[in-house]
Amino acid sequence: MRYILSLLLLTVVLGSNAQTLFTYGSNKVDKGEFWRAFTKNNTGAADEKAIREYLELFVRFKLKVQAAKDAKLDTLPNIQNDIAAFRAQLAEQFMRNQPEVEALALEALERSASEIEIAHVFVAYGTDSSKAKASIDKAYAQLQTGADFTTTATSFSTNDYVKSTGGYIGYITVFNLPYALENAVYSTAVGSYSKPVAGTNGYHIFKVLNKRASLGKLKAAQILVAVPANATKEEIAEAKTKAEMIYGLVQKGEAFEKLAQTYSDDKLTYSNGGLLPEFEFTRYDATFSTAAFGLKKDGDVSAPVQTVSGFHIIKRIGLTAPPAAKNDRQLLEDYAEKVNNDPRIYVAYNKQKQQILKAVNYKAIPYKEADVWVVTDTTLKATNYISFYKANEQKLLFLLGTKKYSVTDWLKFVKNKQTAGYTPQRSQYKQMMAEFVDETAAQYYKDRLEITNPEIGNQIKEFREGSLLFEIMERKIWSVAPSDSVGLVTYYNKNKAKYNWQPSVNAIVFNCADTAVANRAFAMMKKDPLNWKAHMEMLGGTALADSSRFELNQLPAPEGTVFKAGNFTPVVTNPNDGSSSFCYIIKNYEGKEQRSFDEAKGLVINDYQLELEERWLALLKKKYPVKVNEAVLKSMVK
Q1: Alpha-carbon gap, residue 501 to 552, rounded angstroms
Q2: If we measure between CA atoms, which residue out of 80, 94, 157 comes closest to residue 449?
Q3: Is the pTM of this model over 0.90?
Q4: How far apart are CA 569 and CA 582, in angstroms?
Q5: 151: confidence class by pLDDT, cuts 50, 70, 90
Q6: CB neighbours (10 Å) of residue 91?
Q7: 457-473, pLDDT tens digit by residue?
Q8: What is the C-alpha separation between 360 and 457, in angstroms, rounded?
Q9: The 168-172 sheet, strands edge to edge
Q10: Which residues contact 125 (CB under 8 A, 6 or more apart)?
Q11: How far apart are CA 194 and CA 191, in angstroms?
Q12: Cβ–Cβ < 8 Å for 511, 544
């Protein structure tokens, strides 16, 4: 009963939103479309006055868009290309934010809360993967009898470094290992070991030694005294002595940043004072991270720490605690972006592929594989391959909904893979056919999102109509008014009374990149205000200046500023971008003088555009009479 009632309520809501609010000519606009636009753009009250005011704007918008359609502007290649690009962008975003991706992002976010200390047995595939599998299975069997993990790792591992460390890796967290290996680690309890798991280069058995809460992210700087890979004992001792000397200078109070610029061998960081990108404990060598995260407070500096790279002197800059709010939407989106840039995304893609095939009603048509492979071979070798396209149009491979896909579509797919130096081989056809089905189904799914997903359909419609509006306004109004010199002069002469100067000044207005530049320009102007152009050249593009007549409300100055010839206004800084401005006042005007046509031209163009627009809209309203359904309009009033 509850399900039936929900359907009835949904039907009532949809039916209500489908009510026609107004018509223009033979075109209809329903309540739902208007209400979406109104609620998106109106931040105030939803009273009748606000609704009627917005309705007038919306009607004008629709009339202009219809004029663009009448002019066939929707057929312009640039408009169609822009819409296609926008549709593709929306579809890609939609695919990247499916539930499968969100599930992986949530999993990664939860895993990021902990760091796991691990060791492993590693057997490389080498030239015989079956032999490697037998070896790792033997190691696993030995561990199951109670054998010591370190001893087993040393005995069975094929990598010299792994042998030398007894298999010890250190702490890892999410994204440090390939996804399959990460899953093995995170599904193993502390003190236990995993079953053998296949990695990129070989088989692993992981033992979880410890698990702790994430230490967060550290911002630090370093001075590195590098040691060559095959350094002698003397070279290592020399590097250690140098590092201790530098550390001594730090302890005496010399600036860490300057010492890094002078002594550090880290070519990536020495120039910026040794500053490293913010990092987690698991990012670097365990010895380095232990020393860095062991620093107790900002500003603390470690004694030289030796790693395979050399000797590091580390300064703590700041520690960012792990995020506490796991339901933070922005945090989840950040992790979704990381998932999308990690190979684990293919796990989500594989799930999506199956769901897409179901959503598009994929239906395979039986065909003789050998026959298709023969015609594929022939097509790839032929010079006149178009004839094979025509000959195979009726040989079906599968359906997506009611749309048919034939051997011809497959041949085109394979032919597009062929290059001057590469031709697909028959051994690849089966895998390529699977790719062909998946890619075709995904594209079919994306192409129909505008129909199957109302939100995306609405966004594309808004973009399409916005593009048409811009194009028609450019053609009818924005480019017409400035070039109609006769019309502009006529309009100015009829409306001269509108174009009087308000209280104003002749001034030089300075716009500077930041407060420091503004203060420098201010000081230069104080010494020699008449040489302002030369000052701008000396500032090398970090400041711009404009000399003209300005009305007082156009000047960047604090409220209450007194504008007096020969004076400077205070430097004011824009809080949004940090830019700064000030003015030098040359001459004052009381106002009320008539602006000449040239002085008023910018204002005239703007007003003339509005007049042209009103004339045009009057014609459109005659061509498309507008009728508003008052009952539907009043039903929206809150």
Answers
A1: 10
A2: 94
A3: no
A4: 6
A5: very high
A6: 21
A7: 999 999 999 999 999 99
A8: 18
A9: 168-172, 114-124, 202-213, 197-198
A10: 132, 201, 202, 203
A11: 10
A12: yes
